[in-house]
Amino acid sequence: MKLRDQFNRLYQLMHDQKQPGLPALADAMHCSERNMRHLLSKMQDQGWLRWTPARGRGHHSELEFRVTPDALALDQIQGLLAQGELEQAFASLGRQQKKQLAARLPEFLDLRDGNRDVLRLPMYRPVSTLDPMHAYGRLEAHLVRQIFSRLMTFDHQTRSLRPVIAHHWEHNEDGSVWHFWLRPRLHFHDGSDLGPEDVKASFLRLRDQTSMNQRLYRHLLRVETGPDRRVSFYLKHSDWLWPHLLATSMSSVVPRQRARNFAQFPVGSGAFQVIRNNPYQLTLRAFASYYREGALLDEIDLWVMQPCVAEPTFDMQYGYTPPGQANQQQQKVDESGCTYLIMNPDTPLLRQQSGRQQIAAILKPELLFPEPEPARAPAYGLLPEWQHKTSPEHHQRVAAGTRLRLISGQTKEMRQLAERIKALLEQAGFSVEWKTIPLKEQIARDWLQQCDLYLGREMLHDDKDFGCFEWFGNDSHFRHWLPDSMNQWLDKQLCDIQSMPDAANRMQAYANIGRELVQGYWIIPLSHESHFVSVAPHIAGVRMTPLGFVSFCELWVKKDLSSTN
């Protein structure tokens, strides 16, 4: 690096002088002529310049620069990018150069790094946390599943539960006691053993520490460990959904001892371990001591970059194809759940059902979505298969000067829908103040008493049965704006659901809850979303889930067969 710095300085001082003498060069660089001659020789060996010293009286030395400092920096950066060292590449650049490099990052996604199997994938926002207890975003939850292990998993193809780090489980007659036996020879990424005490500590942490999902574990009385790597959960009441909860990303097993930067550099026991996490990238390396079949790739390198177009036509991209080459395959994934509007009952207009009903009448589906859209359909219930919404034909006259404060997220889809809501409410006579806030602020909820309307989105994971229970049962936004009597009724319904062994009966009970929430205008379902996934031709092993993600373990890079002939 020192030689490069000296070259940059020499170029700035002498790039417009073709015949400087050695004394002039030494003087400019503040060194002796001998040292200057040595520097020129080393730079010439690198191919950066050509130096011809003067020979004889009347002849002049000649200095020819063969590269510029910018070109030299680009070569260095390309080498760093090939090695996946984004942070080091950006560190050497100024603000404008960083913007230019960020715009060109897609060009470097397919650079090879020796003989290792590395797949580089773009992601369009940084990861907020990798602590399973606080991984609320869809991206974070997926990454947690790659980094950590759980007692159970839900197989979306067979629609059934199966054990993971547990190899067997049993329960008592009423589903209030659950026993799990761990596999032998389980290890965390740092080499430490994963045992029953780690499982016990993980679930007591989930029960006792504050999080959006803490409510889901509050009926856990105690956890006991026993012979043969047994872990036993004792619950306050029957819960036939308990093994479903153990399959969620938030129920991942974490070490009893965790570093202070655990959320950024977590230690798990999953197929991949975190080796790099900075504002520019997240790098996952295959865990050699993984207890199951290992990953097909050596590394997954996720680069944070801006979309190459202002409005990308996909939500996730697996692999990169340069413009003009083979087209990427587009896959459409329909989501469970919906985008919805909730209303603050402390606002005088919205305290009574008639006021909430007035908002619903203004936001009719045919007005919000006058034309069919590829990624959005009008919602008539909280799930696509539920038909609970009744839109009043007319709404009352709005008093002049009535103000409503609307808050939404900052994604493209949420901004577009919030703009339509604002326009319809203003057409009806309201004065609307609209503010967008990032996901982190939405979770913090400091805005709850500073707005009247909140535009939210709920996406259920693969297990729709438990997804409904989690939505209604955890610390969801809408529950903060329900009256105490409604929250008590909801908790009673959910407790009854936990006592139902049959999944069909549980789904019918969820539908009844959805009907009460929608027809009481506590939640106004607005739309059901689809998202698009882009897959490059050379990426294989893509088995899509309803969330639009794939297991990183199954991904591999398919080489071009024609190049081997």
Automatic annotation (TrEMBL):
Coiled-coil stretches, from where to where? Answer: none
Q: Does the keyword DNA-binding apply?
A: yes
- Ranges where the Transcriptional regulator SgrR N-terminal HTH domain occurs: 2-106
Q: Which domain of life is it from?
A: Bacteria
**Which residue range or ranges hold the Solute-binding protein family domain?**
161-357
Q: Entry's Pfam families?
A: SBP_bac_5, SgrR_N
GO molecular-function term, one example from the UniProt record:
peptide transmembrane transporter activity
Question: Is DNA-binding among the key words of this record?
Answer: yes
UniProtKB keywords: DNA-binding
PANTHER family reported in the protein's UniProt record: HTH-TYPE TRANSCRIPTIONAL REGULATOR SGRR, PERIPLASMIC BINDING COMPONENT OF ABC TRANSPORTER
- Protein's name according to its UniProt entry: SgrR family transcriptional regulator
What lineage does UniProt assign to this protein's organism? Bacteria, Pseudomonadati, Pseudomonadota, Betaproteobacteria, Burkholderiales
